[in-house]
Design a protein that fits this description.
Elements lengths: L4 E9 L6 E7 L4 H12 L7 E4 L11 E3 L26 E6 L5 E12 L8 E6 L9 H4 L2
Antiparallel strand pairs: 1-2, 1-6, 2-7, 3-4, 3-5, 5-6
Length: 145
């Protein structure tokens, strides 16, 4: 693998089967960068806690979890600061992800391919979107109007 390798992930919003995206992240970037790409793809605008489970099962054991580092906590070994190319990911193996532990937006990711970076492109990069993501927040007064 080279520094120019880009990991392309397919992301599906679990509760909205027609909503998904493809996101490219350099191998030298982190799960935190993938999280940022997911936020852009699904148009989530607030930063909340999030976790990835490499087992592909949401809320699986801590051994498979890589979670957002807490601002006020000491560095943890299992954080989203791990480089993508250090994770030993397999093509098409599911990865579970949750954004916002309160509202809980579950996503299933799969590594589609590892390819060369586009010359001059910045990553993470949303490569494609499918469907229209739902609003991140819906307020009751908006529902009655």
């Amino acid at each position: 693998m080279s520094r120019a390798d880009v990991y392309v992930f397919d992301a599906e919003l679990v509760e909205y089967p027609d909503v998904g995206a493809a996101i490219g992240v350099r191998g030298t970037q982190t799960l935190g960068h993938l999280h940022y790409g997911l936020r852009r793809a699904f148009r989530w605008n607030d930063d909340h806690l999030y976790s990835f489970w490499l087992s592909g099962v949401h809320w699986d054991s801590p051994e498979t979890e890589f979670t957002a580092p807490y601002e006020d906590s000491e560095s943890e070994a299992r954080s989203a600061d791990v480089r993508i190319d250090q994770l030993d990911l397999e093509l098409h193996h599911p990865i579970a992800y949750i954004f916002d532990f309160g509202d809980c937006w579950p996503v299933v990711l799969e590594l589609r391919e590892i390819t060369a970076a586009e010359r001059g492109a910045r990553y993470p990069k949303v490569l494609e979107r499918r469907g229209n993501p739902p609003l991140q927040y819906v307020y009751e007064d908006e529902l009655t109007e």
